[in-house]
Specification:
The complex is a heterodimer of chains A (477) and B (296). Chain A is α+β, with helices and mostly antiparallel strands. Chain A is built from 11 helices and 12 strands. Classes of the chains: A alpha+beta (477), B mainly alpha (296).
């Protein structure tokens, strides 16, 4: 048994525990709509009775109630497993959705299948050659052919420009993302320092841990970097095997490489550490990872960066078209018997083929419609060029058709993948929210319980007071 | 989806997610219904896109073949009627030669026959010059203004050249008639022969022998006409193939590119219903009762 007044102290611990409960429920309710807030609970333990506290328990003194309640901490009900799952799902989701969006834009720019796309332009161009073959001396047929050839060249060049513009936009975006990543890394470094200070001082860092997790999600969204939570509560973020943030130390990253699709073949866009320029970081997730993969240079197997690959297809189309048409054109003769006449030429040897393709003839007399040695009204060479359309090796099928099929297949895979990852991400969000979000009903119940606890503890105080009153005023009177 | 713990936030999040998925489905269905196209972008159906592109190419080529065939018809009909008229003129010459071979014919009548044969010769020259859309149908790829020289009867066509039209894949049809084969050239041309018949009739010698010459000329004109006729038959058959191809290709294109309207409309209707229902759920969720509503 403790002292006569010991019971009052027990009642007081109950009242302060109840107050802590009311305040915690209040804080949860107040933050029920706060983004990134994790619900909190009062963590309390019962105090043992005085006799059992010491080493030497005297016989007969072990009986008696405990010494009330002790509020150990206000615990943050976060789940590191769920947070970590959400981070990796976010990184992957940002990657796949950025890739899928980029393919969507690219696909839309192809404008296939339609009556206005490049394959239609090619078809009407080949038809014009056959029309000219039927009337090799007709100036209108020749003008129509020259116009169709020019519009084909324009179509190829504007397709290339579209891809090049998309590249520029994505490059700028990736630069912005890199800047954001550095900003978040700085914020996380600062939060880490604060967490460390507060924890060392024995304080509660719950709200700091919320912002730590929120920033870590943003970093995963941008870069897919992996975050490890250390026992002291600070986050350690590593990107490509090296630390982006470790405690309060932050290493900045920067985007290097060419600023145009043309230059990116020799000088590819890559992410590197500011303090270690020249060594690229391998980024496999997040928006930046997606940006880098789409901006990558083309290769011969067609698995390079989507945009460079598209630009290469436009260049290949221009080159192949010029080669196939010119080879036949050179072997024919014009109405006046001139041979070696080209139809397509390139206005520049250094610029991309797609941008410099141009039509050489300006009138019917400069078009090699006839076979060498035949009469001036022969159109058999023009027909030969027109018949390129129906060959399996035509630029339509060999270059353009193959490219459109490739993009369609890759885009479909990217879309399907993005949809799957999206579901996984939504599930991770749901699981995380399910654990961390505030439920008002639950808080109301906790509030009621704490209220009742307070009332009851006050009642205990009244009872002791009443008992003391009896002892002092009514005893021995 | 299973949650350990359901809160207002998780319910809202789940519902919003479903809302956005439905909005996406609805948008796609609406676009498909209004455009009537199943393939809105290549990735909707990569195999279908490749097929659609090649069907469109085949349709464009087929259209070109039928333009070529129409042009070929024009050439061949023109050549055919010129050759028919030439045969009729030569028949008349034969009749006149038979008359001229009669020994009792008067000098005046002979002169009349010679004059008529002279007129027929110029009509034959005109027939040989027959043009279709400004192009001589008997001189092939030559750009000469007249097919035969009026005095030497030299043929201006380019030997070995012919005018052809592509009426199907790898199916070339010759659309000009070989003037040299039908009318001959230089001293062995029909015009020289007509001059010789006139001379024979005027002089009254060797007229009967000329009948053989005129008969073999009629034969050679008919032979060329037979070639023209077989080309015409080839073009007509190619045209009917083109019609069939066009019908088949258009049907194929529609099957690959167009939506099945009934099915898309049903899907659209059901997507709208689902959206209405899930909006109603969202409204209920927003108004769902909380414990505090019942506390004093």
């Amino acid at each position: 048994m403790g002292s006569t007044f010991g019971g009052m102290q027990i009642a007081v611990t109950g009242m302060s525990a109840a107050r802590a409960g009311i305040e915690t429920a209040g804080n949860n309710i107040a933050n029920s709509g706060t983004d990134g807030y994790t619900r909190q609970r009062v963590n309390s333990t019962a105090n043992a009775n005085l006799a059992s506290m010491g080493k030497m328990t005297l016989p007969g003194q072990s009986a008696g109630a405990g010494q009330g309640v002790n509020v150990v901490s206000v615990q943050r009900l976060g789940n590191e497993m769920l947070e970590s799952r959400l981070r990796s799902a976010t990184g992957e989701n940002s990657y796949t959705s950025t890739v899928s969006t980029a393919y969507g834009t690219l696909e839309a720019s192809l404008n296939e299948p339609s009556n206005t796309g490049l394959s239609s332009s090619l078809q009407s161009y080949w038809s014009s050659w056959q029309d000219l073959a039927n009337t090799p001396d007709s100036a209108p047929a020749a003008s129509a052919l020259i116009a169709k050839g020019s519009s084909l060249a324009t179509g190829i060049s504007s397709g290339y420009t579209g891809v090049s513009n998309q590249w520029d936009t994505l490059n700028t975006q990736t630069k912005d993302w890199t800047t954001q990543l550095n900003t978040y890394a700085d914020q996380l470094g600062a939060v880490n320092t604060q967490i460390n200070n507060v924890t060392l001082a024995g304080g509660s860092a719950n709200e700091l841990l919320d912002s730590r997790d929120k920033i870590a999600i943003s970093i995963a969204d941008l870069s897919g970097a992996s975050t490890k939570i250390l026992p002291n509560g600070t986050a350690e973020v590593s990107l490509g095997g090296n630390a982006l943030v470790s405690g309060g130390t932050v290493n900045h990253v920067q985007l290097s490489g060419a600023n145009s699709i043309g230059g990116a073949a020799a000088n590819p866009v890559s992410l590197e550490w500011v303090n270690q320029p020249g060594t690229s970081i391998s980024v496999n997730g997040g928006k930046i990872g997606a940006g880098l993969s789409i901006l990558g240079p083309a290769n011969t197997t067609g698995t390079g960066g989507a945009l460079a690959q598209a630009a290469k297809a436009y260049n290949d189309l221009a080159t192949e078209l010029a080669t196939q048409v010119n080879t036949i054109s050179e072997s024919g003769q014009t109405a006046s018997g001139a041979t070696g006449q080209d139809f397509f030429g390139f206005s520049s040897a250094t610029a991309p083929a797609a941008l410099s393709l141009k039509v050489i003839p300006t009138s019917v007399s400069e078009i090699a419609a006839g076979a060498v040695g035949s009469g001036p009204l022969d159109g058999s060479n023009a027909l030969k060029i027109g018949q390129i359309a129906s060959q399996a090796s035509s630029p339509d099928q060999k270059v353009w058709g193959a490219f459109v099929s490739d993009v369609a297949g890759t885009a479909q895979t990217a879309n399907t993948h993005a949809a799957t990852v999206e579901v996984a991400h939504q599930n991770a969000v749901a699981a995380e929210l399910s654990n961390s979000s505030v439920d008002l009903t639950e808080e109301n119940v906790n509030l009621l319980a704490s209220q009742d606890q307070f009332k009851a503890a006050a009642k205990v105080l009244t009872a002791i007071d009443d008992m003391l009153n009896t002892l002092i005023t009514k005893t021995g009177v | 989806m299973s949650f350990g713990r359901i809160t207002a936030q998780t319910s809202l999040q789940a519902n919003l997610r479903i809302q956005s998925m439905q909005a996406e489905t609805l948008a796609t269905l609406q676009e498909q219904s209004s455009s009537q196209k199943r393939i809105l972008k290549p990735s909707d159906d990569p195999a279908g896109t490749a097929k659609a592109i090649s069907i469109r190419a085949a349709l464009a080529q087929n259209d070109q073949y039928s333009r070529n065939a129409n042009d070929a018809q024009g050439w061949l009909t023109t050549a055919d009627s010129a050759l028919t008229q030439s045969t009729q003129l030569l028949q008349r010459v034969r009749d006149l030669t038979v008359q001229g071979a009669n020994g009792t014919i008067s000098t005046d009548a002979k002169a009349a026959i010679v004059t008529e044969i002279g007129q027929i010769k110029s009509q034959m020259l005109a027939q040989a010059d027959t043009k279709y859309l400004g192009r001589s149908v008997f001189a092939g790829t030559s750009s000469a203004t007249s097919v035969y020289d009026a005095t030497t009867y030299a043929f201006s066509g380019v030997p070995g050249d012919s005018v052809t039209r592509l009426v199907g894949q790898n199916q070339k049809v010759q659309v000009d008639a070989n003037g040299a084969a039908a009318f001959g050239q230089g001293p062995t041309s029909v015009f020289a022969e007509l001059d010789s018949i006139s001379a024979s009739i005027s002089s009254g010698t060797g007229v009967a022998a000329q009948l053989g010459v005129i008969d073999s000329r009629i034969q050679s004109v008919l032979q060329v006409q037979a070639q023209v006729g077989s080309s015409e038959a080839a073009v007509t058959s190619a045209q009917s193939t083109q019609m069939t191809n066009k019908t088949n290709l258009t049907a194929d294109q529609s099957a690959v590119e167009d939506v099945d309207f009934a099915s898309t409309y049903m899907q659209l209707q059901s997507a709208q219903n689902v959206q209405t229902a899930s909006l109603a759920v969202l409204a209920k969720l927003a108004k769902s009762p909380q414990l505090q509503d019942y506390l004093p």
